[in-house]
């Protein structure tokens, strides 16, 4: 059975590679380094987008972040003042009881405190003073134990993150142990009983609240003031809940109070704006990495043409057209580039399995410490397509040089 022209071209390419295997292997390795970088970057991009979409779908229409503030004018512009206006716990509870769209609400009172464990003093961040409503409003996934209840709010109870448990105790089996808390070094220590250890919250929670490592029962009545708070609503009733909140804030705080209300999807979009800029910069760098690594195709194909000048002359004298020679060399460069691209994708897959490359975002803020995003087929397809396109572009000039060789002069070489 006679082979088609395309299969004949491929067979000819593979025979050429067999003649100089080391040269082609080194060129493919060079290309693979650029494709490796591109695949890792594209994998982070597609994986992060999928992660934010899942987060927005699960909690985007259930959580609202509310900030009550007033504005003041100073020499350089307009500023925000928080603390002068707030909702009381009683008025918020009345709203929850009268509004079926609102499930629960909790103030967000972050604090910078010092922790005492085994007579060792630690500076802690991501600590929050909150009642049991925090556990009803913010969905936390517990490894062991559970959130403290309303009946335990008058006691010194706390829940801590998995990271804090491992850092302070070396294990997550810490139920029944205590953590000391003091606002400053010389202050007396208050000990809190640990009732649960929770996993790292979803990205949408971190973007709305910030890092969470410890939530403990409130010590002061002011902790129940609703200035900066989270509201959990029914998915279908979120818009009605926003209107009810604005009406209550206007009624309780007056017209000078401003309510900034955002849902989880809007908070995620703000994060996306930052990460998209960062990933686009990395994408440009990845493109140039593939381009630089593919320069070897240009040089190797020019060398091949010089070595095969007589062969090209023979083929031309036997009736092969300039177009056929052109596409023969162009396909060779694309096959070489594709081989390097496949090798680069394999290396990227191995690195992704061994390391959590997406943690590059954690360099900017701990809330961006993402789980392993896996390996996305979209990143593979884009990287391979990019390597083929770049390989084709760098193969055009050598292909043109080969096609324009006069048969008589080529045979004399």
Report on the structure:
- The chain is α+β, with helices and mostly antiparallel strands and 413 residues long.
- It has twelve helices and twelve strands.
- The chain has helices spanning 5-19, 21-59, 89-98, 133-137, 162-169, 203-209, 238-253, 264-307, 309-317, 322-354, 377-403, 407-412, and strands at 63-74, 77-81, 102-107, 110-117, 120-129, 142-145, 157-161, 178-182, 190-198, 214-216, 228-233, 258-263.
- Helix 2 (21-59) crosses helix 10 (322-354), helix 2 packs antiparallel against helix 11 (377-403) and helix 8 runs parallel beside helix 11 (377-403).
- The longest helix has 44 residues, at 264-307.
- The chain starts with a helix and ends with a helix.
- The mean pLDDT is 80.
Distance between the termini: 35 Å
Radius of gyration: 32 Å
Helix content: 40-55%
The DSSP helix count reads 12
Major pleated sheet: 6 strands, mixed, barrel
Bulk shape? elongated
- Give the low-confidence spans: none
Secondary-structure-derived class: alpha+beta
């Amino acid at each position: 059975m006679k082979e088609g022209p395309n299969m004949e071209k491929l067979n000819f390419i593979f025979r050429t590679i067999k003649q100089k295997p080391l040269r082609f292997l080194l060129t493919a390795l060079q290309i693979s380094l650029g494709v490796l970088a591109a695949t890792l970057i594209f994998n982070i991009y597609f994986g992060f987008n999928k992660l934010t979409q899942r987060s927005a779908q699960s909690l985007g229409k259930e959580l609202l972040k509310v900030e009550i503030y007033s504005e003041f004018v100073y020499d350089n512009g307009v500023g925000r003042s928080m603390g002068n206006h707030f909702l009381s716990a009683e008025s918020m509870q009345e709203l929850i009881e009268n509004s079926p769209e609102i499930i629960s609400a909790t103030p967000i009172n972050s604090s910078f405190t010092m922790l005492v464990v085994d007579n060792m003093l630690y500076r802690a961040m991501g600590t929050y003073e909150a009642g049991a409503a925090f556990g009803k409003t913010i969905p936390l996934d517990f490894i062991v134990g559970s959130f403290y209840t309303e009946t335990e709010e008058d006691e010194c109870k706390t829940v801590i993150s998995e990271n804090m448990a491992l850092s302070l105790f070396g294990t997550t089996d810490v139920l029944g142990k205590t953590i000391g808390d003091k606002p400053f070094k010389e202050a007396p220590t208050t000990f809190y009983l640990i009732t649960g250890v929770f996993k790292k919250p979803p990205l949408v929670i971190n973007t709305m609240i910030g890092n969470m490592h410890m939530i403990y029962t409130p010590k002061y009545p002011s902790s129940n003031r609703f200035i900066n708070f989270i509201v959990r609503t029914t998915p279908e009733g979120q818009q009605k809940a926003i209107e009810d909140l604005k009406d209550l804030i206007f009624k309780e705080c007056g017209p000078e109070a401003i309510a900034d209300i955002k849902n989880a999807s809007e908070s995620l979009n703000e994060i996306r704006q930052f990460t998209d800029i960062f990933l686009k910069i990395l994408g440009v760098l990845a493109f140039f990495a593939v381009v630089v690594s593919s320069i070897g195709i240009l040089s190797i194909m020019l060398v091949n043409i010089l070595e095969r000048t007589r062969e090209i002359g023979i083929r031309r004298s036997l009736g092969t057209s300039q177009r056929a020679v052109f596409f023969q060399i162009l396909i060779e460069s694309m096959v070489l580039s594709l081989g390097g691209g496949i090798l680069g994708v394999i290396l990227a897959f191995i690195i992704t399995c061994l390391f959590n490359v997406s943690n590059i975002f954690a360099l900017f803020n701990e809330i961006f410490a993402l789980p392993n995003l896996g390996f996305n087929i979209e990143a593979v397809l884009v990287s391979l397509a990019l390597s083929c396109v770049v390989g084709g572009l760098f193969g055009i000039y050598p292909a043109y040089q080969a096609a324009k060789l006069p048969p008589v002069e080529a045979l004399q070489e």
